[in-house]
User: Fold Ring-1,2-phenylacetyl-CoA epoxidase subunit PaaA from Soonwooa buanensis.
Amino acid sequence: TEINLEQHFQNKIDNEIRIEPKDWMPEAYRKTLIRQISQHAHSEIVGMLPEANWITRAPSLKRKKILLAKVQDEGGHGLYLYCAAETLGVTRDETLRDLHSGKAKYSSIFNYPTLTWADMGAVGWLVDGAAILNQVPLCRASYGPYARAMVRICKEESFHQRQGYELMMKLAQGSPEQKEMAQDAFNRWWWPTLMMFGPRDAESGNTEASMNWRIKRFSNDELRQRFVDMTVPQAEYLGLTIPDPELKFNEETGHYEFGEIDWEEFWNVVKGNGMCNKERIDVRRTAFDEGAWVRDAATAYHEKRKQKEQQ
Ligand code: FAQ
Assistant:
């Protein structure tokens, strides 16, 4: 019966036994995974755009190769994640339709513009740094295909974060103009990066269920705090100033206290009204439409092979 199935399912979760695609699972678990995994996939694919903007303008061949490799990795991450979502019974077409119609979200961070070359450093250092903190615990998520995809993704993200920090270091140790560029990029990316972790715990409607199901292992605020504690010393090492006058170290708790995030800005971006939301979705829609012939050709080829095999 349903109750026994549900109990058996929760027992597996509580005993750290992975749930696999063909196992019974409650509909709400399936739904929340489809939501999170597909939104995560969309974030990877849309996340390629702000950086792709700089590939043709990278200042050296070495930097161009690094950036190309990073953006290509992100395409790969999106594809593993779409596949993981497909194991839950949604098609690629459905998830993409939801992205293009604005029904499905993707990370707020990718709706900010990349204005200078220093943004490539800030994105790698901060955005990928935040992504890793959030994703390492997801390697232990209860759903097998998601957890396994995360292992490789995290290894690649770690390279992404390091190249960003190294780029920032070069600028921070460069000419006064280069240092100023690094500080300017830091000023613009710091607060949006803190928003990546999602709303405050009190406003996070999905956390409780996701933690009971061991999809999430830490709350949004816990991970955000961990990010601040990790990043402040890295900024100090670069000689950059954290754009938060309220930031201070609390000796008693051993944590940094920080100012209030502009939640109105966060929700505004999530609702589709950020600086680049429209541009990002337009680019994705156009790419999908212009790629239709590739999908048609692949389908026709598959059909032809199937017919040959049957002969
Ligand atoms: N942006 O109840 P919660 C990357 C939505 S890293 C937009 O707390 P949950 C790598 C949330 O969906 C970025 N929407 O939700 C890369 C929910 O709405 P819904 C991607 C946000 O799921 C780096 C509502 O607010 N990483 O791509 C955001 O428990 C560089 C209430 O929130 C992942 O997706 C936001 N920032 O916690 C690529 C990681 N925050 O869905 C290229 C996996 C919240 O009910 C370049 N995802 N919302 O309509 C997660 O860990 C979780 O989904 C959270 C949100 C933590 C993002």
Summary: The chain has a mean pLDDT of 97. The longest strand covers residues 248-250.
